[in-house]
Amino acid sequence: MTKLSAYDVKSQRHGKLLLIVCLCLTMLVMTIYFTRQANSQLPIIQGIILNEAMTFEPFELRDHHNQVFTDKNFSDNWFLISYGYTHCPDVCPTTLMLMKQFSEQLITFDHTKQIKLLFYTIDPLRDTQQVMQQYMNYFGDNFIGLRPSANDLYLNFETNLALKYLITSSAVSTNLQTNNVDNAILDKSYQVSHGLTLYLVNPDGKLQAILHPKIDPFGKANFSVEQIYQDFIISRQYYRTNIKQ
Q1: 202-214 confidence digits (pLDDT tens)
Q2: Which side of the chain, N or C, has fewer Cβ within a 10 Å radius?
Q3: Are 198 and 179 members of one domain?
């Protein structure tokens, strides 16, 4: 048996190391390739279609008729969710009106009524059940106004959607404890800010898509009826083709 020299042993080791490196690089390239392939199969919308629709953690809210609304209510329909507050001067009412127009367009051109429009208030101190009921009447019967329940289960809803908002007030903590709405309204430091996002829930009760607004050259975010309509049609088709078997 021929005895290998130190040089031959060293060369073999280098050869094995090179082979391992090449295999690792090949696997890395293939992983990147198939990841891109998988991502490229997702339709393009102004937002994100979830490859695997997200299941909601159990939550409990109250609607504008003071009826319990839970994750179990997400069934047999598509749901489009927005959030904000009734004292919002422009963004919220504009978005809700666009959602209303979208649902009307859906009925006209797609001949479907299987979508519910939801508006969740992040300012329940001022947005009482009575205020929410009056506010939702402006936008039609297809809207359901939602507000936090008395228990902490509403937090699951906010966490599921990663809602972004901030309420600042020098008196807000006291007002929340005493439910002193008048003081909150008079408090000039009481300010509410929030993000602008729409959430699409499929008939299985899972989050299917997240719709983002377009940003104009001046940095202002806004939706359009056409954008919401097209994004919904694309998301629904993806659900029918890839998820609903």
Answers
A1: 999 999 999 999 9
A2: N
A3: yes
Q: What are phi and psi of 70, to 5 degrees?
A: -125, 180
CA-wise closest residue to 146 among 115, 181, 118, 117 = 118
Residues pairing with 63 in the sheet = 146
Token output for 214: 């377009």
Rounded Cα gap, residues 2 and 109, in angstroms = 83
Contact 53, 207 (CB under 8 A): yes
212, 200 contact by CB (below 8 A): no
- Between CA 232 and CA 201 the distance in angstroms is 10
In this structure, the answer to whether residues 204 and 96 fall within a common structural domain is yes
82 near 96, Cβ under 8 Å?
A: yes
Half-sphere exposure of 197 (CA within 13 A, CB side): 14
Please check whether residues 149 and 191 belong to one and the same domain.
yes
Instruction: Note whether 78 and 201 are within 8 A (CB).
Output: yes
Asked if 198 and 49 touch (Cβ cutoff 8 Å), the reply is no
Residue range of the domain that includes 188? 47-243
What would the pLDDT profile of 36-54 be if each residue is shown by its tens digit? 434 557 899 999 999 999 9
Both structure tokens of 213: 């607004």
Q: Residue 147: which CATH number?
A: 3.40.30.10
Taking CA atoms, 117 is separated from 29, 99, 104, in Å, by 44, 7, 12
Q: Let me know whether 51 and 36 are in one domain.
A: no
In the block, which residue shows the tokens 């600042």?
168
